[in-house]
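Batch manifest, entry 17 of 40.
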Amino acid sequence: MTDTLKILYVDDEPDIRTIVQFALEDEVGLELKLCASGQEALDLLAHYRPDLILLDVMMPGLDGPSTLQHLRALPGLAHVPVAFVTAKVQAQEVAGLKALGATAVIAKPFDPMSLPDQVRTLWQASVHG
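Output type: structure tokens
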């Protein structure tokens, strides 16, 4: 295992992908891949194994929950932690997303300055249970 945490971020909004890229790309110990759709992510996951996946909930085509369902069926991805990134963070909505198998839910809008720490904390929590 390397010291680099490989992160896949999936969001159909180019502005949000850019913010995440600025927030995480130059962080020591983080490697970031970006996808603009659930299908693009599934295509990438055929040959890329991230340590952590951040997934937008509302996307055209395959939405976040559908993408999660598909990726859980891919070999080697059943236990990769997935966090949904969404503006819908009422307790009932968060509980519903976690029931689908999400490790966590990150609220939009998020603070780009604290995103690297959020990601590391999420990863540590998922590894150490």
